[in-house]
Amino acid sequence: MSKNKIEVQGLEVAFNEKEMGDYINLTDIARWKNPDAPSDVVKNWMRTGDTIDFIGLWEILNNPDFNSVEFDLIKSRSGRNAFTLSPSQWVSRTNAKGIIAGRGKYSEGTFAHSDIAMEFLSWISTEFKLYFIYEFKRLKAEERKEIGWSAKRELAKINYRIQTDSIAENLIPKDLTAVECGYIYATEADRLNKVLFGMTASEWQGKNKDKDGNMRDYATVEQLLVLANLESLNAELIRMGLASADRTKQLSQAAIKQMKSLVDNGDVKRLQGWSDQRLLGSQNLKKKKGE
Q: What is the tens place of the pLDDT at every residue in 167-222?
């Protein structure tokens, strides 16, 4: 499944990230109600007076270029038996930004801002809407987690360069070979590995032969954050001329204090609890569906 699609009750729903937020495919959602003519479902929804009121107010609040005069004209005619309104007509007549109308037989369909899509979901099915909300939130939580992990991983890489520069300036004599230099770099890297992970890189590889990458690829966000801090600290301790045993002691003390701060952080616990609660709710809904 591609990154811009989620599966809800066996139905794939596409979404795109735009400047104004997430835009969700209404045509895909409409297939839950009528798989053969989903565009007709969207048009029928747009015929109602409540829909016109909602999407018009959304535009007034979010779109300074919205044609409110044309909106008033459309609103005065909505709800009548002969009234029809397609997404493309709505966009062209009012310069709406909350709906992106699909054009042509092979278009991807009509997309709408998530605020509007949620209103459409309520009209389609409250049950389907609830399933959609859980799946969409789960996906967004995973994306945020991945972004956070990647940011900490890159931070650790940047600070690793700070450490290697300090090693080159203070620990490596000019007459050493490349192999000898590499040994010193690896020794300092494993100093941090032992302090934070309790083992060297080679020891981890020996215990995890079935895994790709290295131990830092499997570290938690908290561990990577502490690692980045330890690399900067180690670089300063090297510049100060501290012996290796003294540096190891100070690094160990810093690692313990920082990990304890993160573990005992109330905000982190609340965030983790929120995530676990949402995941449990999604799993319970899936179990109920299977019964």
A: 877 887 877 787 888 888 888 888 988 888 889 888 988 898 888 777 877 777 77
Q: Is 96 in a helix, a strand, or coil?
A: coil
> How far apart are alpha carbons 240 and 31 in whole angstroms?
67
Residue whose token pair is 């300074």: 64
Query: CA-to-CA distance for 52 and 85, rounded, in angstroms?
Result: 10
Residue 115 neighbours by CB under 8 Å, 6+ apart: 21, 58, 98
> First CA to last CA across the chain, in angstroms?
25
Beta-carbon-side half-sphere exposure of residue 190 (alpha carbons within 13 Å)? 13
Cα 55 from Cα 167, distance rounded (Å)? 61
Which residues, at least 6 apart from 123, have a Cβ–Cβ distance to it below 8 Å?
45, 48, 51
Q: Which helix (H) or strand (E) holds 238?
A: helix 221-240
Task: Determine if the pTM surpasses 0.70.
Answer: no
